Amino acid sequence: MPRREPYKNRIELLQGTLDMLILQTLRWKPQHGYSITQAIRASSREALQVDTGSLYPALHRLEKQGLIDSEWAVSDNNQRTKVYRLTTAGRRHLVAERSRWAQLVAAIAGVLNPAADEGAS
After folding, report:
1. Angstrom distance (rounded) from CA 91 to CA 96
2. Where in the chain are the domains?
3. Which of 23, 35, 67, 115 could serve as 62's disulfide partner, Cβ 3.0–4.6 Å?
4. What are the pLDDT digits (tens) for 75-116?
């Protein structure tokens, strides 16, 4: 049996999904960038890996939209780091995005498994 390499079959994120995942991780607690990537990775059982080239543009975009804010802090290892937190507008946006995501998942499930909607014909 061949050995699986980590992230070889990595799941590519749909456009806009990364924003929702970032907002969700910030719902748990304020975090710095690396912590956000680790939270997404751990919560997805290592199926999702967010590269810094994707993360930081998304964080800047969300901050510009007023969905998150940030402040400089000193980390446990005495380094300056930017900590991001969810705003009230970000919480509302996350609720709406989660609802849209649930609709999308149900729609895709209906296409992939149409018999389930017909009562197991």
Report:
1. 9
2. 17-114
3. 67
4. 888 999 999 999 999 999 999 999 999 999 999 999 999 876
Q: How far is CA 114 from CA 1, 14, 63, in A?
A: 34, 23, 40
Q: Scanning the structure block, which residue is given the tokens 């996350």?
A: 94
Predicted TM-score (pTM) above 0.90: no
What sign has the CA pseudo-torsion 113, 117, 120, 121? negative
> What residues have CB less than 8 Å from 78, skipping those under 6 apart?
none
Q: Which CATH number fits domain 17-114: 3.40.47.10, 3.30.499.10, 1.10.10.10, 3.30.565.10?
A: 1.10.10.10
Backbone phi and psi for residue 13, each to the nearest 5 degrees, phi listed first: -80, 140
Residue 103 structure tokens: 């609709």
